[in-house]
Design goal:
mainly alpha, elongated, 148 residues, single chain
Length: 148
């Protein structure tokens, strides 16, 4: 039995994040390779443009978007779990994971606002994905070592 329930919750959140991030990657690749983004309209965060973007991309943008929101919420939960009875290294890793998820989400929003045209935002999203994957894998592994 794990004497630290917060560490156990952090491990569960990390595992779920890893699974969802892999699914996020697959949905993002489907968007990148097989979906045509809208060319008409004025890019930005207007209701009209966002509705047009969601309508033009089918369910994949919605799935990618909603999955990202769930990952972000789990990253917040994991960060909060890390502040209860865990090591400084674990707290730092959870914070780095949260920041990686946040950067990926923000760059995704900026990519949409650019009219799906600024590939720099897509690149930042990809780098943040790799960072998120590495950090949460490390959190899962190191928390397993702490339990033993």
């Amino acid at each position: 039995m794990n004497p630290n329930p917060s560490l156990h919750r952090l491990r569960i959140a990390s595992l779920i994040i890893l699974i969802l991030v892999c699914f996020q990657f697959a949905a993002g690749m489907i968007l990148n390779l097989f979906v045509t983004f809208p060319a008409a309209g004025t890019p930005g965060f207007t209701d009209r443009y966002l509705l047009m973007a969601f309508a033009a991309t089918g369910p994949w943008l919605e799935i990618h978007w909603l999955n990202g929101i769930v990952i972000f919420a789990l990253a917040i939960a994991g960060l909060s779990f890390s502040f209860r009875g865990t090591s400084r290294r674990t707290r730092a890793a959870a914070l780095l994971g949260f920041l990686s998820v946040s950067i990926a989400g923000l760059s995704g929003l900026l990519f949409i606002a650019s009219g799906f045209a600024n590939n720099g935002y897509s690149y930042i999203m990809a780098i943040a994905f790799v960072s998120t994957l590495a950090v949460y894998f490390d959190l899962l592994y190191s928390s397993n070592q702490a339990i033993r």
